[in-house]
Structure formats: C-alpha cells, structure tokens
Amino acid sequence: MPGKTSCSNRSPVRVSGFCLTFWACAPCRRTVRIGRSPISVVQLKNLLSRLLTAGLILPVLAVAAFLAPPWVWFLLVAFAEVIAAKELFSMTHGGDRIAQAIGVASTLIVSITVYCFSRDPRVLLTVLLAVPVAGMLVPLWRLGEIATAGLRQMAGVSGPLYIGVLLTTVAMLRRDLGDSGPGYVALSLTLAWFADTAAYISGSYFGKAKLYPEISPAKTRAGFLGALAGASLAALLAHFWYLPAIPVHHGLGLALVGGAMGQAGDLAESLLKRSSGMKDSGRILPGHGGLLDRLDALMIVGPIVYLYALWVPGIAAG
Q1: Looking at the structure, do residues 47 and 22 belong to the same domain, yes or no?
Q2: Is 91 within 8 Å of 278 (Cβ atoms)?
Q3: Is residue 246 within 8 Å of 257, Cβ to Cβ?
Q4: Measured between alpha carbons, how far is residue 311 from residues 305, 307, 317 in Å?
Q5: CA distances (Å), 142 to each of 96, 98, 150, 154, 269, in order?
Q6: Where are the alpha helices (DSSP H) in the chain?
Q7: Is there a smaller number of Cβ atoms within 10 Å at the N or the C end of the chain?
Q8: Cα–Cα distance between 135 and 138 in angstroms, integer?
Q9: 172 falls within a domain
Q10: Residue 150's domain spans which residues?
C-alpha cells in the first residue's frame, strides 16, 4: 500500500498477478505504485506513448532496412538527419532561419559525401574541410548577438559533422556489410533503443541516486545500469535470432561499450539542450520529444558498431 495521504476518498485498485496500486480520486491521481516504488502517472503515460510511437515506426524501419535496397535506407537516414539538424540549429541559431538552413544544408552535403564518396579521399577531404570553414565564417555574415556568436560558430563547425557523419554510419552498415548489413543495422538500433527504454523503466522504478544532476536531473545510476542490461539483451537477441555470425562475447562487449557510450551521448545532447534553455529538441514524436532526442544514443552506437565491422571484417561479414 502507498504511504499516508490526506485524501479520504482513496480507492486502491490491485490488478491480479501484478502489484499495482493507485488512488482513484482526482486530486491524488498523481502516483502509481508498482511494487514498492512510486511511478508518476506522467511517467507511465510517457512510457506508453513511447511504446505506441515505436510500434508505429518500427515496421517502416524494418521494411527499409531488411527488404528495400541500401539506397532506400540511406534516403530514410538522410531524411532523419535533415529533421535532427533542423532541431539542432533551431537550438543554437534561434530565430535565424537563414543560418539554420545553411546548417541543415551543410549536414545533408556531409552525409551524401560520406555515403557516396567514402572511398574517394579527394572529395571526402574537400567537403570535410570546406564545411567547417563555412561554419566558422557564417556568423561573420549573420552576426546576431555577440554573447551567443561563439556557440553559433562552433555549432556551424561541428553540427554538420556530428549529425552528418555519425548517423550516416548506420546507412553505411546496410550498404557495406552485404547480407549481414540489415542485421548490423538492427543491432545498432536495438542496442541504442533497448538501452534507452530499459534506462527509462529502471530509472523510474529503482532510481534514487542521480547520475549527473547538473546536466540531466532525471537520469539515475539505476537507469544507467538498466541501459547496460537492455543493451546486453539486444546483443543476445541478435546472436540467437537474426545475427548468429556475431559471437556472444563480441555482442556483449559491443553492448557494454555501446550502452555506456550511448548514455554518454544522451548526456552530451542534454548538455546542449540545457545550455540552450530547452527541455526537448522538438515535439515531432509523441512521448519522445524531438527526433534528435531519440537519435543521440544511436549517433554514438552506430559508429561503434561500424568501427567494429571495419576492424573485425571476417566476423562482421559472417
């Protein structure tokens, strides 16, 4: 039973087979107790919204990753990059639509270059050098407030690389790994998203000690451990279901590294949002916030899995 409450109209409800108690009166309908730990109704609704949104999006991702040609998957990734870049540059270049458009265009150019010309060092180096130079110079034209000019300048330098390079590795997994490509795409997605979901659930249920309250007050140490467990489950699922070529110990190693680094990527994006005075990067996904909020871990996990495939080609190729 929950702790003491001042309300006299409390109506505890228990669901058979699962200890779930809540108060039916409107003034007290703020917490749900599962076991001994309270979970707010807002958190519960947010979790359900996340699961519903994921249920609608996952079939599209599965078709694009497993059944469609690699270029279709790249187009989907590039579309996501455009949205994520718009969210990023809306945070760093608030109110300046021209500078935002330049940032989004730079991100797309970087992505296309990395995907289409990754084996042509001249084209690759030209774009990877030209885009940061342009990012340095744009604030001289779009000056705005001096107090934020440095942030906008560095966002213009690093933002297109942050999104345009890191996320494109998820498309390159599909293209470069032959028949194993779809499996490694699925592994990247599940490592990031299983970790994120497990972190949310374990943090809501068990979380007390904060992980990094200066950056993200909601994140807990229990959530971090839950992320590692969720990523490990994703790795085991890959080995025993759709990607048997990857050894269990390799998969678990990727899970621990990817789970931990993915949470660090989440914190890095939270730092950007907090410094910009924003809670979410956008509102495009119900229960998830912005698309960048959902891709921050994947933009770390994807490159880790791609580097694994690059340096362990025999196993990665199956």
Answers
A1: no
A2: yes
A3: no
A4: 10, 6, 11
A5: 8, 8, 12, 14, 25
A6: 41-62, 70-92, 97-116, 121-141, 146-164, 168-176, 181-206, 221-237, 248-275, 291-295, 298-311, 313-316
A7: N
A8: 6
A9: no
A10: 68-165
CB neighbours of residue 48 within 10 Å: 12
Query: For residue 117, what are the contacts with CB-CB under 8 A and spacing of at least 6?
Result: 123, 124, 127
**Nearby residues of 270 by Cβ (< 8 Å), 6 or more positions away:** 215, 216, 219
> pLDDT for 147-175, tens place per residue?
889 999 999 999 999 999 999 999 999 99
Which token pair is 69?
């040609």
For residue 190, the Cα-to-chain-centroid distance in whole angstroms is 11
**Domain contains 170:** no
Distance CA 196, CA 149 (A): 33
**Range 92-116 average pLDDT:** 96
| In the block, residue with structure tokens 């001994």 | 36
- Rg of the chain on CA atoms, in Å: 22
Clarify whether residues 218 and 138 are in a common domain.
no
pLDDT tens digits along 73-103: 999 999 999 999 999 999 999 889 999 999 9
Q: Are residues 147 and 2 part of one domain?
A: no
Closest CA to 218 of 22, 39, 34: 39
Alpha-carbon distance of 305 to 255, in angstroms, equals 10
pLDDT band at 47 (very low <50, low <70, confident <90, very high): low
Q: Is residue 50 domain-resident?
A: yes
Instruction: Please give the tally of structural domains in the chain.
Output: 3
- Helices 181-206 and 248-275: crossing angle in degrees, nearest 10, is 60
- Distance of alpha carbon 253 from alpha carbon 228, whole angstroms: 10
